[in-house]
């Protein structure tokens, strides 16, 4: 980190100092090496009574020279996964709703961003043979990236982007909104119990 440019170090320091919901456990992890000259990664899990409701990874990328596809010098990349009830996974509007949650989480905090892209995937697993005792399982997966707009000193407000990402993670996990009384937020009902491995 000592050799990294000052804007990247400041962005990482802001991530490290962010205050998050108590249900979300987060820790630094090894970032990918080839996506950008500088990268920092976090892994998170949403826990309820030690039950893993959802998990995700958020990666901060930085290219001091800028990147044409990003339209900036920073990029945030995420993967979020959660188990679902099969009936919810069958909802044809689920992908659009999950994508709206991502953009809504950023907009609800007034965060300037650009160039969003991503996928929402739902998958079902059915078990056979030696695994036939396991119930069928359904999962939602959100893969996305966006460019956080840079503020003073060329540094984006990464702490607020992290908080927004945690809002999305909590919403996918089926937790109530962090702000009491916010009836505009709808969350996914989740499968309770251990995740199949």
TrEMBL record:
Protein's name in the database: DUF3000 domain-containing protein
Entries under InterPro entries matching the protein: DUF3000 (IPR021555)
Domain of life: Bacteria
């Amino acid at each position: 980190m000592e050799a990294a440019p000052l804007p990247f170090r400041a962005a990482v320091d802001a991530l490290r100092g962010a205050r998050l919901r108590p249900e979300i456990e987060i820790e630094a992890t090894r970032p990918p090496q080839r996506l950008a000259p500088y990268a920092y990664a976090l892994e998170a899990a949403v826990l309820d009574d030690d039950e893993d409701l959802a998990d995700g990874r958020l990666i901060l990328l930085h290219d001091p020279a800028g990147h044409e596809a990003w339209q900036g010098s920073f990029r945030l990349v995420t993967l979020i996964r959660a188990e679902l009830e099969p009936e919810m996974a069958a909802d044809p509007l689920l992908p659009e709703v999950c994508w709206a949650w991502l953009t809504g989480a950023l907009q609800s905090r007034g965060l300037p961003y650009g160039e969003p892209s991503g996928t929402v995937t739902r998958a079902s697993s059915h078990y056979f043979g030696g695994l036939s005792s396991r119930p069928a399982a359904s999962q939602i997966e959100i893969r996305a990236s966006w460019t956080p707009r840079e503020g003073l000193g060329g540094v984006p407000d990464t702490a607020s982007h992290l908080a927004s990402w945690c809002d999305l993670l909590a919403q996918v996990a089926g937790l109530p909104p962090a702000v009491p009384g916010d009836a505009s937020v709808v969350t996914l009902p989740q499968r309770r119990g251990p995740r199949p491995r």
